[in-house]
TrEMBL record:
It comes from Alistipes timonensis JC136. Gene3D superfamilies: 5' to 3' exonuclease, C-terminal subdomain (1.10.150.20), 6.20.10.30, BRCT domain (3.40.50.10190), DNA ligase/mRNA capping enzyme (3.30.470.30), Helix hairpin bin (1.10.287.610), Nucleic acid-binding proteins (2.40.50.140). It catalyses: NAD(+) + (deoxyribonucleotide)n-3'-hydroxyl + 5'-phospho-(deoxyribonucleotide)m = (deoxyribonucleotide)n+m + AMP + beta-nicotinamide D-nucleotide. This is DNA ligase. Residues 583-660 form the BRCT domain. Pfam families: BRCT (PF00533), DNA_ligase_aden (PF01653), DNA_ligase_ZBD (PF03119), HHH_2 (PF12826), HHH_5 (PF14520), Nlig-Ia (PF22745), OB_DNA_ligase (PF03120). GO terms for cellular component: cytosol. Zn(2+) binds at residues 401, 404, 419, 425. The gene is ligA. InterPro entries: BRCT_dom, BRCT_dom_sf, DisA/LigA_HHH, DNA_ligase, DNA_ligase_CS, DNAligase_adenylation, DNAligase_N, Hlx-hairpin-Hlx_DNA-bd_motif. It is an enzyme of class 6 (ligase). NAD(+) binds at residues 30-34, 79-80, 108, 131, 168, 283, 307. The lineage of its organism: Bacteria, Pseudomonadati, Bacteroidota, Bacteroidia, Bacteroidales. It comes from the Bacteria. Its EC number is 6.5.1.2.
Amino acid sequence: MVRERIEELRRQLELHNFKYYVENAPEISDFEFDAMMRELQELERAHPEFADPNSPSVRVGSDLTAEFQTVKHRYAMLSLGNTYSLDELHEFIARIERETGPTDYVCELKFDGTAISLTYEHGRLLRAVTRGDGVQGDDVTANVRTVRTVPLRLRGTGWPDYFEIRGEILMPYASFDRLNAEREANGEQLFANPRNAAAGTLKQQSSAVVAKRGLDCTLYQLAGDDLPFTTHWESLEKAREWGFKVSDAARICRSAAEIDAFIEHWDTARRELPFPTDGVVIKVDDFAVRRQLGFTAKAPKWAVAYKFKAEQAMTRLDSVSFQVGRTGAVTPVANLEPVLLAGTTVRRATLHNAEQMALLDIRPGDMVYVEKGGEIIPKIIGVDLSQRPADSRPFEYITVCPECGTPLVRYEGEAKHYCPNQGGCRPQIIGRIIHFIRRKALDIEGLGEETVELLYENGLVRNVADLYDLRAEQLAPLPRLGEKSADNIIRSIERSKQVPFQRVLFGLGIRFVGETTAKYLAEHFRSLDAVMKATREELVEADEVGGRIADAIIEYFAEDENLQIIRRLRDAGVQFEAEARELASENLAGRTFVVSGKFSRSRDEMKELIELHGGKNLAAVSGNVDYIVAGENMGPAKLKKAEKLGVKIISEEEFFAMIEGGGPVEKAAQQELF
Ligand code: IVH
């Protein structure tokens, strides 16, 4: 019964996933889709024995740590020759046609992401591997499975039993903007462009994080022995039928003039695309002609990339100003004489940090080159020294905070300067409050950035705990507020006391503790007290928490001012404990467990399963423990201790059987079950 339902849900979800993400023609509402997905996830969670690595639920990822294995490509992943010049491109075509006579080309967009090779066996996704050095790459299958446009099972018929398909993992601009906004709010380093963000995301350790980043995948090349096609065009059409996302920008071009027209069109039209491109790829269509042309050591002789020029402009650097963020990080910003670049007027550009500025020897008054390449924020790529004024002096970076005058500091391993005056520096104080009230944190509606500034100017708030002392009659007389808004604000502050613990933890604004880390910390420790008491060793046991994050957490709770704020928030009634879980069964009720070693899922997931079925987790082996669930590589010391104390040791399979049945099954019976 359960198994059939799981299968049916998987089939339905796969179909609607394809309709939504690949065909852009959804047939059911998001609500219905989410409800089915939730049902599937719940069934799979409570029935781990029906797990399938290609279930549509993997699209949401897991927090299993992926240690990437290096895999040799069966067919090398070559690069492409490239050119910025139409003359060179015409020469390339002339050379081909001297050798083979007139032939057809397929022109495609050159997608600006990171290359991926997908292997399918019997119509199911077997592996996804990065380009690496072209000969071998990293196995990133778990992460790629979360990308909605990658089919896990193929549609239609006629696919070879074994083949590879290559393409690009892309981060659309919308996902990129969202990701960077989030990172900025969390005081994390921004990704310079969608390409870096896509590549960085693929190498994430947690596929649950990958799942949320909104990656996309476009395919453009098949590889295999005896592919059943004679032309590239045909292979693209088939790939589309099998459920792959294949760009519909591709065209067959029969002459240099047609290729030129394709390039000319996309050099401007690409600005309207929702994802980044950096050129056009021109490929010989006919496989027989391709074979005739062959390869150089590095690249095929039958294809070339024509790259679009990044648009540049020259303008004057008027002055440099400095922004101080919520975490105290200082960013230098170039104020430019306005200049038109790639369709928009550019007035400001980031200068990154002191080192970058020194490297380019940038000085106010200089004529500078501004470029808007793949990057969203324009950058200064150089200085025209011939136009430098005679009285110009090297730029001296600031040594004190432009907002509060405190001497700036540099932390080891960080390029930026920081203002350490957390408690007294205006943009940091206001920034922290704004972070706290964000939708993803305490979600205090009616309180925007301007209102927070207003409250600060009027001496009503100095930290987030002050919000909970506000009274409507203090707010009503302030400009732009009035009684109605004042009441709304107070009501929404009141409501924020119900916001779950994980969002409160995120809202505190501990350095490096973003939304996801806060969620993992809350799941692992379940209360603020437990997080505060945890040692560095205990902190890094939570998923996604490394030494750097653990140190930042310890540092945060070592500050008296923070402890006071926490005490006041607690008194106000803000949630400092995770909600109790709804049980999936009571099959483990009254029993205590220690999980140790490696399992087919992460340890935190195993612990969650224990609680989900009514059991209790204990941290260390003692006489109070009923069972040790032993995975691979369980420490020998623990094993010895358990044996000495007479604690029962069970395998992962026996554990799953307990979840199903109520008691650990005997070894013989278990053979039949699995
Ligand atoms: S074909 C042997 N087609 O560009 C030919 N590549 O500079 C293999 N790329 O590594 C590549 N869009 O990551 C091809 N439509 C497209 C492409 C494309 C982007 C990337 C790909 C490749 C790099 C070569």
